[in-house]
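note to self — DONT lose this again. spent like an hour looking for the file last time. sequence + predicted structure for the chain T wanted, 192 res
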Amino acid sequence: MKVFEPIQEKLKIALDEPRYEHTLGVMYTAGCIAMAHGYDVPKAMLAGLLHDCAKCMTHEERLELCEKNQVAVTASELENKALLHAKAGAILAKIEYDITDEDILHAIAVHTTGEPNMNMLDKIIYIADYIEPGRDKAPNLELVRALAYKDLDACMAQILYDTLHYLQSRGGHIDQTTTEAYEFYKGYRKEV
């Protein structure tokens, strides 16, 4: 969208090329999911565009940004450095990109771990990040993509289930918030 061009230009500089391409994929996917569910399409696209705005910062820069803005950092975020880009991204979206919409900032902040009882925009961004066209490695991707346009809660349940099983199989650290999110959504999961 033309209105997003100044943000896209800044992101093109801030992100490496694969991350920028992923960001565009999430932006358009978020718009499509929003349209399917009667949600504000430009708002979803803006959140998708900015969801990874802090991804190419160093862990130290993200940590400093959170500390400077009094945003609590969990032990999981310290251990798994990739997680912290979500909270740092919400701060950066506000400071660097002048985003004041709390729904957009919240969706950016929770797009990596999820959380219980997410609002519609939170779910749209979480799901769009998982299913955008450049993603091809996740299990049950065909099912998850179909669910994204039919039932956001069932889609969340499947993504969280698959994510937790993947992390457990790798012996990876699991953020408590992700576990809590799955506990909230697991009743919506359809057996595969």
